[in-house]
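User: Some background: our group keeps a shared notebook of sequences we're curious about, and every so often someone picks one and asks for a predicted structure to add to the entry. Today it's my turn. The entry only has the sequence so far, pasted here. Could you supply the structure so I can complete it?
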Amino acid sequence: MWRLRCKAKNGTHVLQGLSSRSRLWELERQIAAVTGIAPGEQRILVGFPPECLDLSDGEVVLGDLPLQSGDTLIVEEDKGRTKTPSPAVMKHGAPSSVRDALPVLARKVVPADNSCLFTSVFYVVEGGVLDPACAPEMRSLIAQIVASDPEFYCEAVLGKTNQEYCDWIRRDDTWGGAIEVSILSKFYQCEICVVDTQTVRIDRFGEDAGYTKRVLLIYDGIHYDPLERIFCDPDTPPLTIFSSNDDIVLAQALELADEARRKRQFTDVNRFTLRCMVCQKGLTGQAEAREHAKETGHTNFGEV
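Assistant: Of course. Here's the predicted structure to add to the notebook entry:
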């Protein structure tokens, strides 16, 4: 069975019961059931950049189309689709309103609740699903992966023993960082690019692993948000998963980071002031907070 998602105006949906041997009309019927868009009025886009599927033959099997399990389909309503698409459209895919309009890379703000990294990663890998409740499951997933390989995930790598780390990452008052991004990159089999607004650089996790997909986060020193590509056509859902060959999106991400830096939309982790929410002690910078946590066991901090 294939795992497919479809994004339409009314949200993101999971399509079930399809395989490489299913017929195109079966796919269209399922899409109609979850989106309310009749088969004869559907425009289905897939890939990077999104290109229109040839819907002229409803009997073609999905395995003969440029589709594979794990893809996210973008579904639009096209009441004029009864006309036969021109060869140019069939060859080059999406209509000019999608392909020629310049898309914009934008930040999607997620809650600042100590789990912004996990919420942000889930949002981009799931194609734009915002679900802060995913954090406990993702923390548990990371702990299971670390516990399964204590030789690799040793104290030298984690900064604490394997068991201490697993207990620590499961808590909802701890923050994720580079170790967790690296683990999630391997788990989701995609390159995760973290754009730093203070230094205007991109750290690419999984860069040399040969992954075909890429997702992006923006980081201001203490908070992560997902990045998504917004199209001028309001009926086209944003894209959160990009081809690993799409260097245009990296350039757009650096432009976003540079703009945020010029507006000083970042936190200097060596100088920002915190307060321990357990004993109310004032602290300056990440190093002091880390030392205080080591001495007292207090890990609940608030920025002043």
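Suggested note for the entry: The CA atoms of residues 127 and 240 lie 5 Å apart. The first strand starts at residue 4 and ends at 8.
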